[in-house]
Write a structure and sequence with these properties.
Length: about 230
């Protein structure tokens, strides 16, 4: 079972953190507070997060600097960042946010429904990626147990069938999510992330098909070789 996703909320004002928690509580995920850029970076050392909501205007290390540190780390560089700001200095300020690696840049006061909808997309993509990693881990175990030849035996066949069924469920969910993103004219970053997920699923499906009994290179059936 995939655990709840963690969402990192970074803001130096407690009332803003309370407001974000109230807006995002309906998603039923784990909300983690950080009151500074330094505190956010510490949280990212130990936990995995689906998305980061990052305030721009903070004393000390501001949002831009915090994002730069996040993007430099191998572990955290791919976590989506949504910048939140109470000020608007025009296109240049917004461009700086995207240049720092943000997937979105939202000015306060923001529409709670819109923010919740944006965050939910990245949470769902994170969940799909977690499921994909689970399938890949099971597949690696099967490869290690089956050697280089075709997989055989009732136990192996049963595991392959279970893997195939689990993968099919993830493929179906990913396809539905991609259609939803297309219909809603979603952010380009979310659409690109969904497309990347589908490519990974396609590769995993090909690898799984190649393990089927009698499957030769490329997954086509050939007479078994002794």
């Amino acid at each position: 079972m995939v655990q709840k996703a963690k969402i990192l909320l970074v803001d130096d004002r407690p009332e803003n953190l309370l407001a974000l928690e109230a807006i995002l509580s309906a998603l039923d995920q784990t909300l983690v507070r950080a009151s500074s850029g330094e505190e956010a970076l510490k949280a990212l050392l130990t936990d995995d997060f689906a998305v980061i909501l990052l305030d721009v205007q903070m004393p000390g290390m501001d949002g831009f600097e915090t994002a730069a540190h996040i993007k430099r780390r191998e572990r955290t560089r791919d976590i989506p960042i949504i910048f939140l700001t109470a000020i608007n200095h025009g296109p240049h300020h917004t461009f700086r946010g995207y240049a720092a690696g943000a997937v979105d840049y939202i000015s306060k006061p923001f529409d709670p429904w819109v923010l919740r909808a944006k965050v939910s997309v990245f949470v769902e993509l994170y969940m799909k990626n977690c499921q994909l990693r689970e399938q890949a881990a099971l597949l690696r175990l099967q490869l290690e147990g089956g050697g280089k030849g075709a997989v055989g035996g009732k136990e192996s066949a049963g595991l392959l069938a279970e893997l195939s069924a689990r993968l099919a469920a993830v493929e179906e969910q990913a396809e539905a999510l991609s259609k939803q993103l297309d219909d809603d004219s979603a952010d380009a970053a979310a659409v690109a992330t969904a497309a990347h997920l589908e490519r990974k699923l396609t590769g995993l499906r090909r690898a799984l098909d190649a393990l089927e009994p009698g499957a030769g290179p490329g997954g086509s059936s050939v007479p078994a070789q002794n």
